[in-house]
Amino acid sequence: MRMTVAAILVSSARAFVLPSRLTSSRGASRSLSAQLSPRLNGLDKPTVWHEFSPLANEYNAVNLGQGFPDWDPPSFVIDAMVNSVTPSMNRHANQYARSYAHMPLAQVLAQDYEKRWNIPIDPATQIATAVGCTNALYCALQGLLSPGDEVLLLEPAFDIYYAQVRMAGGTPIHVPLRPNPSGGATANQVFTLDLYELEAAITPKTKILLLNTPHNPTGKMFTRAELEDIASVAQRHSQLLVISDEVYEHIVFDPENVPHVSMASIPGMFDRTLTLSSSGKTFSCTGWKVGWAVGPPNLVKAVTAVQQWVNFSAPTPNQDAIAQALVQAREPYNGFDSYYAWLADDYKRKRSLLADALTDAGMVPVLPPGGFFIMADTSNIDFPLSDEVTEAMPATPMPRDWAMSRWLTKEVGVTAIPPSAFYSPDALHLAKNLLRFAFCKGDDTILEAHRRLQKYFKK
Amino acid sequence: MKVALSAFLLLVTNDGAAAFVPTIPTPSTVRHGTRRFTQNEPVDGIASSVGEATQRLGPMSGPTVWTEFSRIAQEHNVANLGQGFPDWLPPQFAVDSLVEAALDSQQSPHQYTRTAGHPNLVNQLAKRYSTHLKRDIDPMTEVSVTVGASQALYLSLQTLIQPGDEVILFEPFFDLYVNQVKLAGGTPVYIPLTFVPYESGDDIVSGGDWVLDPLVLKKAVTSRTKAIILNSPHNPTGKIFTRSEMESIAEALDLAGPDAVVLSDEVYKYIVHAPPMNEDGRKGESSLCPGHIHFASLPGMWDRTITISSAGKTFSATGWQVGWCIGPKRLIAPIHRLLPYIQFCASTLVQEALARALPRADEPYEGYASYYEYLKGKYTRKRDLLGKALKAAGFAIPDYNRTPGGGFFIFARIGKEIQECIPADRLNAPNPAAPGGIARQDWALCQWMAEEKGVLCIPASPFFSQERAIEGASDEFVRIAFCKQDDTIESAALALFDVTGETSANGESSSVLVDDKVDVR
Fold first, then answer.
1. Which chain A residue is nearest to residue B1, measuring alpha carbons?
2. What is the pTM of this model?
3. How many CA atoms lie within 13 A of B341 on its CB side?
4. What residues does B464 pair with on adjacent strands?
5. Which residue of B has its CA nearest to A44?
6. For residue B371, what are the CA distances in angstroms to A356, B374, B375, B409?
7. Tell me: the pLDDT tens digits for A136-150?
8. What is the interface pTM, i.e. ipTM, of the complex?
9. Which label site among A363, B134, B322, B328 has the fewest CB atoms less than 10 Å from its CB?
10. Which candidate from B21, B95, B340 shows the least CB-CB separation from A85?
11. B24 and A284 in contact by Cβ < 8 A?
């Protein structure tokens, strides 16, 4: 995969467009790219989603790419929404919410986090709600970063992080979770963080370490020991804050041995950690967009100070419904101790179904302890290379995993996401033998994928 | 710099993965000034929580008129005519639309939708705006759905404004605009609307018109002017910009150059309770929205305008937060690009609910030809209820038989008698939330009325630039909402009447007030 310097410069030319005030004059229009704010630079490329969703549709593939469920939220959650807007229920949830957070939701969240971390949480100053976790992160980065600040991203990282850091004027610095194929069978064994590499990446400009646990796309869950190690690194650099994206926190398969641990609960870290989460993955309602940030007042304030002027508040009926749902979720559900226990069990079953399917295809699934994605090792799979070129692909020629994803969609009828979409340009090679499959799908869907994989690979 | 060097080496020597020099988008105009720490001081050496955005907001990240008066409303028993949202429910058909959408397991609008806007909704919006603007609007490229009109404005500014660009605002203005302009790194340029009283004279405090002087506007245009924010019907004055004023704005836009854009905030357009009287004033109205001229429908202005509106005010559902931008592809496409990174998509469920509610709103409702007619009738009646009370209490208000008006605020002028009643120790008292840190006449009156008279109104000064507020431009005005139940307006009427200590329904309080009045003198 040789590249000339020229090719590199051409492919990254878009990212170098600077505002050309020198060429603007009354009566002469600046070019579109110069006219638009530089915060859009590099964001004109279509994303991996823009490529693979239509492709899956076109080939009628079983779409195990998209990270959202294909079933409805549980009925108690829908009922809560109906309650929120029904006049006779008097929930007063149709007008602007309190900008920081709708108080009924803030109160329930404060209770939940207090119980979990054994730290007092004031709902009025330590909870901020936003339009989903993505929005909470957007506001947090806008509120905390100044141009030139560096943000450590552990890659592979959810593709939106990179863009949001840049939009806030920050510089993303990538530290890899290096896949160690002989490390074992689980995501925690295979994807490890080298603490020396982490610390070496810290400079006086490093402002934020962005953590994601359970991790998308690997499903890795940072253990207490790992978090303590990261914490000691953080504490050696007083300007460093941690933002922890924990949206998959309730989809955990072995809570006794591999529980979900928040960085905020590690000694010494509460005051420098902003914890983010949302309702979408937990309640299978990704279209409701209720996210939140919890932490010390000064960090929560960074979110609200920005949000106040971006959209003022998150939709009230949605916040109000989730406030009710969070209370209900604590109760026994479908024979389990709580809705959360039922949810994790349901996903665990689906994890098995998918892992079987991948194994039968000759792939090696790297079993995740949490979340609803499996990274599969595809080293054993042969497929014909093509010289296709697409707008969204991250490098030329097309990386192996990207090409394989396209081939798998067209020839086998199953769509997965190429993890190179989640890696920085220097590290794309780390993704070449991996594919990300989602199991937030109906059993039938997963079984159909199994059938198709079997049909093709076991010929 | 360490990272850049290693990246450069990668570029030259690597023969494997694609190398790429990280870009640091820092045009020279981005400020790297000294940090100002407000209430976000670092705790024991822990990192500062003040970033660029919060620095740009400056004092706006501290207490504001909204936080102050919300607090007062919570601490006192008041008839609250401050908040700009209704205290009644959305119409039943809107609630039904949301419930039906939530229960629809076929369509199941519970997962992520198209980032640029849910197809059912953008199709509806494109259809309506095709009628409003008399052109074919493409739902996929010329419409964008956002979390309320506030976010539509935010995104428009984020795509258009580079640090140093100027944005023209007509003063008074909704204070959100200033902070959004600042967040985008832009410089607000204030063009005062001129208050032209119906009558003048030393002792006369009368209502009047707020008028745009086209010369003042044109003089303010520079080579840095990138946007003009138009808000009609106008918050806080209720003004309806005339066609001729809009034409001046179009001319100013031409002066500013081909890249300048008008952001037209039209959230109150279905509440035009006093439409322009004459034919000329009504030229160019939309048949679906009588009394309102869409700026984008002016000749040549479609390509230069982002039209912004929302469902909240129209459907008395401000908490649903569904807003939108309509405009040419060249202006909307950048907003589409940003949306995935701001929140990925707006709530699918409320978008679907609105898509179902919109066609129902055109049907006969409560004896009116449509819900929109009903809404206008309702607000007209409440406007008159409040207006009468304000006049009786000694405020001067617009004469809606001669001055067109829309929205649900009355921008009332403080009469002489009321001015004289404000306790001396409140006038010009220090107050960190007030512009310039001082509670001038308008603020002092509102705070006094809220804390001691049982009625809450909003002072005019937060809607003016600080410079003009401290000059006294806002001293005589208060903003009073009538998007309230009749009971609330009536309680407010009694309390307002009480302000000057005139006879009241309650004999006891009347005598107490007489004593107060004596003390004040």
1. A203
2. 0.86
3. 28
4. none
5. B337
6. 56, 5, 6, 20
7. 999 999 999 999 999
8. 0.86
9. B134
10. B95
11. no
